[in-house]
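Chapter summary example.
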Amino acid sequence: MEVGLKIRGIYSTALTKLFLDRGVTVVSPSDMIAKRFKGAKKIAFNRPVGTEITDLEDSQGILIKGQAEQLELIVQIIRETLFDAICRKTTNDLFVQVEFPYLAKSALDEFRDSVLPTVFNHHRLRIIASEYVDLIEVKELTSHPQKKEIVSQDLERRLIWANYKKGKEIGIEHVKLDGRVISLSEGRILEMAPKQNKLVLRRDKFKGRSKYDGLNVSKEEGDYAITDVREGVWYCQHTYFRRDGRLIGAYYNINTPVELYPDRIRYVDLEIDVVRWPDRNTKIIDEVELEKFCESGHLSTELQNKVKRTARELIDNFSGEMSTRGQ
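The structure predicted for these 327 residues follows.
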């Protein structure tokens, strides 16, 4: 099928490379894309546009517009290439929203890097400071691509870690599979470990329900949580305590690998969670919800299987702990 794909936005170089490699004709390229892909056989300037890709408003993914058959092909290619991409149909059959979580952005970084020198975490850093990242890449990497690791680390430090300090309050963007962004209660930084890309937060301004999800234990005034997050890991660990330090339980929210930003962390919630009570009993919850979203086409079968494996691995690790303690 001849699609005639027009691409605009911060992902344009990476996506152009991805789709050209898959035999899709990219039409009406910007001057920048035309220069970067000069001589490519599947670049066309005077063909009609059949499908168009632009950035989502928050730049966390793309909006695809086109006729149903063409949309299906483009989404299929994205699913096959970026297994953690979240695809959301809209009320208008001509549009599909695609969110690019941590691994999808990393894969797109690699596509871009095959075209021109690109820092690690390029697309995430461009959401923070687009022009600055482009400037540094041109200035530092064009003539010295071997400096990629050093330049990448310096950008991470300047744009993310330099903004953190103990006691700073940062947000938690808990993105649902249907696209809703839920702001969980903020956390104050207790510990920072840049080399491990890890933050430890204390949270005591709980929102929402009167009971802790999954644990089925009532909230009380003075309760607090210690939240451990590590970039690239498939879950966030929330450990809840009473005012006097008594353990309430732990909740392991399984999600796409965590992404760190200067003022927040972000991930897409993948429905399944693991809860653990003080007596070390554990349980996997909300598997039915995950099945619903898989059936509706929001996530790939590969991603669904990864979520289930992550939950099972957590349970197995807890069982291993108990065995060790009993020896």
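To summarize the output: Residues 117-159 form one domain.
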